[in-house]
Design a protein that fits this description.
- This protein has 429 residues and is an alpha+beta fold.
- It has two domains: 8-106; 179-405, no CATH class.
- The protein has ten helices and 23 strands.
- The chain has helices spanning 8-59, 69-74, 114-123, 125-131, 204-210, 239-242, 257-260, 270-277, 311-316, 338-342, and strands at 65-68, 94-97, 103-106, 112-113, 133-135, 143-145, 153-156, 159-167, 170-175, 179-182, 221-224, 228-230, 248-251, 261-262, 267-268, 301-304, 362-368, 378-382, 386-389, 398-400, 403-405, 411-414, 423-426.
- Strands 4, 5, 6, 7, 8, 9, 21, 22 and 23 form a nine-stranded mixed β-sheet that branches. A three-stranded antiparallel β-sheet has the order 1-2-3. Strands 17-18-19 form a three-stranded antiparallel β-sheet, with no helix packed on it.
- The protein is elongated and about 125 Å long.
- It starts with 7 loop residues before the first helix and ends with a strand.
Length: 429
């Protein structure tokens, strides 16, 4: 039997028809697939916006604000990674919220400064309580973090630092971990019997923090009287961190802790102490003699990058209300022993900025001391929960906790301020 088959002409015709069909249908198919992927991307964006809405509601964030996908993932508002349907890449963008509460997904963030962000948190009662924020009772009404573990963690210099609070146009940070034990200042034996000079602008610690620690050349560090040297901590600030630091004017007024201490009520007035830190009294008046014989001019201001916290920064970090009025609260002068007298010192309790429990657990603060006409000491926060002058001038070694002010245009990228999800910062472009 004769088999039926396509002739060459018929085959060519079929091929031509199929080609025409493909020319017509393939672009339509590609367009359809592309449209489906685009639709899928829009649905993904809707999902992200929905998660961001819930996050803003739950945290009662003020607008404008910006929430990263990373933050939504870390806080279990999304199951991540979130894929881009177009190319299957991971989405790492932001949901930006404007003044009118319009939510828009973008690959870039509409940033808000960390200062404004903290103010927004404070202005909402729920987030203010949740994150541990308060206004202090000083004339400046600074917004501060307080309590045993508030949400004030920030990633800075590839380390955990913590936010002390908002001071005017700037946010102030302090390193979470202490550096080594160093002298505030030491001197050769012919100057103040080797016990150092309590003028911050020329101190050894200022020099270390703003030279070697600031990423500069090595310096000499000291740990006792008579210029006894020690190995400097090797920690340094990287260029990213330095780009965020404000060249700031720090007050270096000298509180007279003897005058500020009320023996009748056994109290330091916290507000008056704060004023003295920023006052016009300098750190030393020498009457001569070997112990106090330097001729260094004392100042009440210093401008630079890195310094130390104040004693009142520590006091206001406690959630104990007594500390707002009395930095020496809890001291019992009638106790039979020193241990009993200090056992219930109040300001060390529920205080994220407190370290240790003994006299040796002490850190330097910025202010020099002016407790007498022969004083060459500086102030120290002791682990027992008391602020006092250093015992051996400025030369005795204590822990160092670097503190800085951020530039007022530093922006927040992401984070919720917890230790597991610290705030991430960036410089304004």
């Amino acid at each position: 039997m004769k088999k039926n088959a396509f002739t060459l002409v018929e085959l060519l015709a079929v091929i031509a028809i199929l080609t025409i069909i493909m020319v017509i249908s393939v672009p339509q198919l590609i367009t359809s697939i592309k449209n489906k992927k685009t639709d899928a991307l829009e649905k993904t964006k809707d999902l992200l916006i929905s998660a961001a809405r819930n996050y803003v509601i739950d945290y009662e964030l003020k607008v404008p604000t910006s929430i990263s996908i990373e933050t939504l993932c870390k806080n279990d508002y999304l199951e991540c990674p979130i894929k881009n349907p177009i190319d299957n890449s991971n989405l790492n963008g932001y949901v930006n919220v404007d003044d009118n509460k319009v939510y828009v997904y973008s690959d870039t963030r509409d940033y808000i400064t960390i200062r404004d962000y903290i103010i927004n948190l404070y202005n909402n009662e729920e987030t203010r309580i949740r994150d541990g924020l308060k206004k202090d009772n000083t004339p400046d009404q600074n917004i501060r973090y307080y309590g045993s573990d508030p949400n004030n963690y920030v990633s800075f210099n590839n380390e955990l630092w913590r936010i002390i609070g908002v001071f005017g146009n700037n946010v102030k940070l302090v390193r979470s971990e202490k550096l080594g034990n160093l002298s505030w200042d030491s001197s050769e034996s012919s100057i103040n019997s080797g016990w150092g000079v309590n003028e911050w602008s020329q101190s050894d610690l200022k020099n270390y923090l703003n030279t070697m620690y600031y990423g500069g050349t090595s310096v000499t560090c000291y740990e006792d009287i008579n210029n006894k040297t020690t190995t400097c901590p090797t920690n340094k600030l990287d260029n990213t961190a330095k780009s965020l630091i404000d060249y700031h004017t720090w007050n270096t007024g000298a509180p007279n802790h003897n005058e500020l201490y009320n023996s009748t009520t056994q109290s330091y007035d916290t507000v008056e102490f704060y004023k003295a830190e920023r006052g016009n009294e300098t750190g030393k008046i020498c009457n001569g003699g070997d112990y106090c014989n330097d001729t260094v001019e004392r100042t009440t201001e210093w401008t630079g990058y890195v310094a130390l916290p104040y004693a009142t920064d520590w006091a206001y970090a406690s959630s104990e209300s007594d500390c707002e009025t009395n930095m020496f609260a809890g001291y019992d002068a009638t106790a039979s022993s020193f241990g009993e007298a200090i056992a219930n010192m109040t300001c060390k309790k529920n205080n994220w900025m407190h370290y240790g429990s003994t006299l040796s657990d002490a850190f330097w603060v910025l202010s020099p001391d002016k407790s007498s006409e022969s004083s060459i000491g500086s102030l120290v926060v002791y682990g027992i929960g008391a602020v006092s002058a250093s015992l051996d001038g400025t030369a005795e070694p204590h822990f160092v906790i670097p503190s800085i002010y951020l530039k007022n245009n530093v922006q927040i990228i992401s984070g919720t301020g917890t230790s597991g999800d610290p705030y991430i910062l960036k410089a304004d472009a």
